[in-house]
Amino acid sequence: MPNDNVTKLIQPGTFDDPLTDVLRNGARSLLAQAVEAEVAAFLGKHADLKTEDGRQRIVRHGHLPEREVMTGIGPVAVRQPRVRDRGAAASDDGRIRFSPAILPPYARRSKSLEVLLPILYLKGISTGDFEEALAALLGKDAPGLSASTIARLKEVWADEHDRWRKRDLSTRHYVYVWADGIHLQARLEDEKQCILVMIGATPEGKKELIGFTDGARESALDWRELLLDLKRRGLSHAPKLAAADGALGFWKALGEVWPTTTEQRCWVHKTANVLNKLPKSLQPKAKRSLHEIWLAETRRDAETAFDAFIQAYALKYEKAAECLAKDRETLLAFYNFPAEHWKHLRTTNPIESTFATVRHRTIRAKGCLSNKTALAMVFKLLEAAQRSWRRIDGPNQLPKVVLGAKFNDGLEVVTTADRHPEAAA
Question: CA separation (Å) from 96 to 32, 60, 92, 165?
């Protein structure tokens, strides 16, 4: 079937979709119930408050005008209940206000749609094509998705990113960091190859986006500029460990800016690099052997499995053996940190999983994406993803790492002085 005919068949309005109508009506009903339940919980929380004349102080006060919220199944109409504080004047700072969490004031689109927009943009859909593309997903009457609306959103996101990248970091401290270069589908306007991303773990175990910029993936210069910018804005504490791909210019920059930070090569990247130097018929067995190394419970067992791999493949597949052997120390660095943290430290998965939908894509055929716009889109993706990043396991071990405690095979090394401080005194 010709492509033009296929396009006509999927145009919104060319067929009825009862299922979507049912889903939308169900969503409207569920949203209304959730909003009402949220208001009821708020009123119940303040049920004991009374006015001077003995009346209920916090009461319902009708509804706001109906509005439509754009979701992944199209527009869903909702009416937000209003709440009134009868015991305070409008200008009173002590006035109790209802701040809905489910349906924030002025929200016009769901968070999932907020994420969809930058993804589509990075995949090559131009501003002028957004209305048609989203209409096919959300319905031809979907409001607020015109080219001018998308353009305004881009400006807002660019401003938000600009404020974020200038934020003060003097109060921040990151125990671990992960770094990687993310290739986008979009071709950047000044020959930059990718987006350089760095994520950090706080002493409380929370993962946060630290910084990112456009650059060449293996350029030590671009990574150095990013690290120095972080230091200029107050990030004075060097992380205890950094995990990244072995091919990055990041390591050279790290050694210059934070020379005391331990290097940990990413096992996912290393495994792929080693397997690429072996015949496909041998790759499944070799992959299992590599897993035996970094999943070993002790460094001694890991070293034994490491040597076994080298002996097994060095004779016929020297390049594969050399690829593994040259990074032995940095591949096994995680054994000197708490065992609870190993699963987080062995790979750059926090970055890999976040960009699974936009990295390693072919360059789109037409036009270029400005670096400013690309960074704004990436910022919105990271901002959304950050809310669901998994915390570090064993957060109680992080303060020990910060204070310089020593670990061997994942266990803290306790000296005689630590056991009997009064004897040391």
Answer: 23, 13, 9, 34
Q: What angle do CA 17, 113, 74 make, to 5 degrees?
A: 25
Q: How many CB atoms lie within 10 A of CB 29?
A: 11
From CA 126, how far away is CA 134, in angstroms rounded?
12
Domain boundaries, the chain: 3-85, 111-165, 176-402
Per-residue pLDDT of the chain in tens (425 residues, 90 and over written 9): 444 443 333 333 434 455 445 445 555 565 566 667 778 888 888 888 888 888 888 888 887 777 666 554 456 666 777 888 887 654 456 778 777 665 655 555 545 555 556 666 665 556 566 666 555 545 555 544 556 666 777 787 888 889 999 999 999 999 999 999 887 655 555 555 678 899 999 999 999 999 988 887 678 999 999 999 999 999 999 999 999 998 778 999 999 999 999 999 999 999 999 999 999 999 999 999 999 999 999 999 999 999 999 999 999 999 999 999 999 999 999 999 999 999 999 999 888 877 765 554 333 434 456 777 778 878 877 877 787 788 999 999 999 999 999 999 999 998 766 655 555 55
260, 241 contact by CB (below 8 A): no
Phi, psi of 69 (to 5 degrees): -110, 125
Is the CB of residue 88 less than 8 Å from the CB of residue 94? yes
- Whole-angstrom Cα distance, residue 228 to residue 235? 9
Asked whether 367 and 188 are in contact (CB, 8 A), the reply is no
**According to the 3-state scheme, what is the secondary structure of 238-292?**
CCCEEEECCCCCHHHHHHHHCCCCEEEECHHHHHHHHHCCCCHHHHHHHHHHHHH
Integer Cα distance of 248 and 330 in angstroms: 14
Q: How far is CA 324 from the centre of its chain?
A: 29
Q: Say if residues 155 and 380 touch (Cβ distance below 8 Å).
A: no
Answer yes or no: pTM beyond 0.85.
no
Q: Tell me the backbone φ, ψ of residue 71, rounded to 5 degrees.
A: -125, 180
Question: Token match 């997903």: residue?
Answer: 137
